[in-house]
Sequence to fold (281 residues):
Amino acid sequence: MIDLHTHTNCSDGTDTPIQLVNKALAEGISVLAITDHDTTSGWQNAQDALRSNLSLVLGAEISCLTNDGISVHMLGLLFDGKNLAMQNMLENTRDGRIPRAHKMIELLNASGIKISMEDVESVKPTGATLGRPHIADALVKNGVVSSRDEAFSDLLHNNSPYYVAHMAPTPEEAISMIRAAGGVAVIAHPFASHRGQVLSAQDFLPLKNAGLNGIEVNHRDHNNEERNLLASIARELDLVITGASDYHGTGKLNSLGENHTNQAEWERLESEANQRRVIQL
Fold:
C-alpha cells in the first residue's frame, strides 16, 4: 500500500514523525510520503524511526496561489532537501503565514469571537508550520467550536469572511522549483470544492507545460464524478495518477492509507525524479 500525502506535528498533523512511521508500519504501508506544509523539518526524525518493510518518501506540501487568487497545494516529492532555492521558497511561504494568522484573528475578534495569537501559539507544537488548523485548535480550546472540522466548516473555510490569503508562489513557480531541485510535482486534491474556489479542467495544461508530473485523483475530498474527470485529464495529459490519505492524525477524519497509489503509477513517478531518493534500510 502506497500513501503519498501525510502530515506530522511539524505542520498541522498530531503525530510526531516517529509516531507516523510506526503507524504506517503497523498498517502495512509499503511506501510512505511525509509531506508537511512548507517544511522539511520532520525528515530526519522520520528517517531515524525507519524500519525494514517501509520505504520513506521525503517531501513537502507547498501552499500556492494562482494569479486569480485560487489556493492550490502542490506536493513536492523526492527533491534535494539541501537545495538552497527550494528551502528559501519554503521559508518565505512559512513566514507569510504569520501576518495572515494575525489578520484572521483580527477579523474573528471584530465579530466578537475571542481568540488571540497567544491562544494559537499555545496549541501549536514548537517549531510547527503555522496554519489554519492551529487557529481551529485554539477556537476549540476557547470553547467557540467543538472540533477542527466544525471550525473549518463554520469559520475558516476559503469562502469565509475570516479567510485571508498569504504570500505564496504560483503553482507554476512551485513546480519549477521542485523540478529544479530534482523532485517531482503532484497537485494535491485539485477539485476539493468544499475548500473554496478550485481549478477548472483547462488549467491543467499550463501546469503540465510547467513540469507537473501527476494529479492526486483519489482523495477523500473528491467525489466519484470529480475523480473520474481528474483521471481523464491525467490520461489526456499523460500525467501520473496518485491517491493518498492526506492523513493528519486526530486533526482530521482521514485514515492512514484510506486512498493509495497504484504500484505502476508510483514506479513511473519515482523514475521522473533526477535521482533515486527513496529512503530504505
Q: What stands out?
A: The first strand starts at residue 2 and ends at 3. The chain has a mean pLDDT of 95.
